[in-house]
Design brief:
It is built from eleven helices and eight strands. With about 325 residues, the protein is α/β, with parallel strands linked by helices.
Length: about 325
Amino acid sequence: MSVRRILAKTIDTDLEYEAIGIDLAKNCVSAALLTTDGEVVCIDRLDYSELEKSAQALSSTTFAMEPCTEMNYLVQKLEAWGHRCLVIGGKNVQNYVENHFSGQKTDLNDAQALAFLAQDTQLRTIKAKDVEQQKYASLTTLREQYIKQYRQTIVSLKGICQAWGLNISKGISGKARLKDLIENHAALLGSICSCRLRATVGDIKRFKSPKDFPAYYGLVPRSIATGHNERKGKITHRGDRTMRSLMVQAAGSLVNMATKGKLKSKQLTKWILKKQKEKMPWGKLVCAVAAKLLRIVRAVLISNKPYNSKIAGVAKCSLPKGS
C-alpha cells in the first residue's frame, strides 16, 4: 500500500521526525519528512536559509541526502546542531525510485526515497568530508583545473602553429620541454599525493588489513569467479580517481628510478627488478607498485613512526621485533 503524502510549504518544528530526506539543488531543496506517527510530509521547494533556520529549531533527527557540491558544507552545519547526517549514493536512490515509484524520477520522489533509505541499517553510506579534508580536496581540485587549462592551451597553440606550417613534435611541447617538466616537478609529487591523501583517507585505523587500503583506491585486481575457476581481471577503479592517478604517476617514477639504480630503498628496488625480470607488463607493474606504496603509507601512519627506506617494502613477518 502506498504512503499518502501531506504537502506543506514549511517545516513544522513542533513535530518530531524519524528521518528527513532532502534532494539538494543550487538554490533550494525538496524535502520529505517522516514523522514518528508514520506520516510523510513533503515540501516541494524550500530555500537553504529556511532549511537551516528550521534545522536549528528541530529536535535531533536524521537527515539524508545524495552526494553533491553543497553536501559537505551542509553536513558540517547540521551535525554542529546535533543532527545525524547520512550521504546515500545516487544508485541506491535510483533503484528505490525504480522499484517504488515506477521509475518516475522527480525531486519529491528522490527526497522520499532518501528518507526511507535512511532507515535501512544495512545500507552503505558515503562519508562526508570535514573542514580539513575539504581544504585539501579544494587544493587538489584547483591543481587539476590548472593542469587541464594548461593542456588545453598547449593543444590550442599547437593547432595555431600547424595552421602556419610550424610542426610541433609529439608530447606536451616537445621532448626538451617534457624533460624539463619531469626534472623540475618530480620533487613536488610527494606533497601533492600527501595533500590528496589527507583529503580522502579519513581515519586510517578503519583499514584493518594492508590490502584494504589499496582496495579503497581501486588499485587491486577485480576477482572473476565461475564454478571452481577463479581469475584476476583489471583493477577495480573504485574510490577517488585523482588519488589513484597520482599514485600511478608516482609508481611510474619509482619504476624508472629503480631501473636506473637511483631509488634509495634497496628492498623496493630489488622487488621491482625482480618483477621486471619476470617480464611483468609495464602497466601491471606500475599498478602493483602503486598498491605497494599505499600499503607502506598505511604501515607508516598506523605505526606512527617516520618512514625508513631500509625496511620499506619488506614484509612485516620478516622484520625484527620492534621495527
